[in-house]
């Protein structure tokens, strides 16, 4: 069998992504193009993603992003073997733009269409950098929209959610705390930078859902955010200066502590020796640092893809599409619908 080129289209949130992956006869993946157009700056003044704004931006960016990806890969669109697209979960209007584009390309090129799950795509992203996954692994998916612990026994159709956030996603907590501290949106990078100058043990912020009767693998970040708000208010009322770096570092420590502790506990309980961390928050320096320390101590292998592959992109969707093609999965019907609340 010859090489097959898989096109991946992502539009579930504020990133318009087009990726092209070469699937070799032995199942090996090679990333040929990864183009992303982000509307994040258009959302910054609102402090979060505005769905209408995101949909319009996808509509404007889709074709130019596709052109850039095809050029970057040095291929002709007609060389594509199949088209993969995020069908959910995500923002309804944003998903529609990507799925409509994917259908148009698949129909015009007369190629199979694969509607895929965005969350599985985040896990698949790691295979572009670190090769095939072991038979079983645990994935910690942390971004602005999701915070989940997954047991991955096959990218095509064997991913089970074992835990998730009961309120805010980890990235959402970063964004909300950044707002509270008058830092720009998205809040992860500025908090990460500021935290490097602070002491993570300075303030004992709560670790959500870590009591003996709490769910073992679920997360909660809204109490932590409220606790940061209360602490800052109290300082202000007392006329004290806010030690911003210590607040950022202590908040970051609380998030990293809970995420890594629960992920490693899941690995141990399930007898799994590999942890994958993906999603925008995987770029966090304390999260990856603490995960590396704790995984090494527990004899667990850690895989964290580079930040560009962790945040939303089309390459991860192309990678997942390639795994489906390699597994002989059935293509989706041309009337494929979007599923904003699609579970993993
Ligand atoms: O995966 P992503 O690009 O988009 C989705 O939400 O799907 O993730 C974006 C989130 C934002 O909430 C952002 O604040 C967070 O990832 N983030 C970080 C860092 N870089 C991005 N959070 C903590 N530390 C970082 N270095
Ligand atoms: Zn995502």
TrEMBL record:
It catalyses: L-threonylcarbamoyladenylate + adenosine(37) in tRNA = N(6)-L-threonylcarbamoyladenosine(37) in tRNA + AMP + H(+). It comes from the Bacteria. It holds the Pfam family TsaD. InterPro entries: ATPase_NBD, Gcp-like_dom, KAE1/TsaD, Peptidase_M22_CS, TsaD. GO terms for biological process: tRNA threonylcarbamoyladenosine modification. One of its GO terms (molecular function) is iron ion binding. Binds 1 Fe(2+) ion per subunit. Fe cation binds at residues 118, 122, 312. Its cofactor is Fe(2+). It is found in: Cytoplasm. Belongs to the KAE1 / TsaD family. This is tRNA N6-adenosine threonylcarbamoyltransferase.
């Amino acid at each position: 069998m010859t090489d097959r080129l898989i096109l991946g289209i992502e539009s579930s949130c504020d990133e318009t992504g087009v990726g092209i992956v070469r699937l070799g006869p032995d199942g090996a993946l090679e990333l040929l193009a990864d183009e992303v157009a982000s509307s994040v700056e258009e959302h910054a003044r609102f402090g979060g993603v505005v769905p209408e704004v995101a949909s319009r931006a996808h509509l404007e960016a889709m074709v130019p992003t596709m052109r850039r990806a095809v050029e970057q890969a040095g291929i002709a669109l007609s060389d594509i073997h199949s088209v993969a697209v995020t069908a959910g979960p995500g923002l309804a209007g944003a998903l529609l733009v990507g799925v409509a584009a994917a259908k148009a390309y698949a129909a015009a090129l007369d190629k199979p269409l694969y509607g895929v799950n965005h969350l599985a795509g985040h896990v698949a992203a790691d295979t572009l950098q670190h090769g095939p996954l072991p038979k079983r692994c645990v994935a910690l998916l942390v971004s602005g929209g999701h915070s989940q612990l997954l047991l991955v026994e096959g990218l095509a159709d064997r991913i089970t959610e074992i835990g998730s956030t009961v309120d805010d996603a980890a990235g959402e907590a970063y964004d909300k705390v950044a707002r509270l501290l008058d830092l720009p949106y998205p809040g992860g990078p500025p908090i990460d930078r500021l935290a490097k100058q602070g002491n993570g043990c300075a303030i004992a912020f709560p670790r959500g859902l870590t009591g003996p009767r709490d769910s073992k693998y679920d997360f909660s970040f809204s109490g932590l955010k409220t606790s940061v708000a209360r602490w800052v208010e109290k300082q202000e009322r007392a006329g004290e200066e806010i030690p911003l770096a210590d607040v950022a570092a202590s908040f970051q420590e609380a998030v990293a502590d809970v995420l890594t502790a629960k992920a490693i506990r899941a690995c141990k309980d399930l007898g799994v020796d590999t942890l994958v961390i993906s999603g925008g928050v995987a770029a966090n320096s304390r999260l990856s640092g603490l995960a590396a320390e704790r995984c090494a101590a527990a004899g667990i292998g850690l895989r964290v893809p580079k930040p560009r592959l962790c945040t939303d992109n089309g390459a991860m969707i192309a990678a997942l599409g390639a795994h489906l093609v390699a597994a002989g999965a059935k293509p989706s019907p041309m009337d494929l619908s979007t599923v904003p609340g699609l579970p993993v």
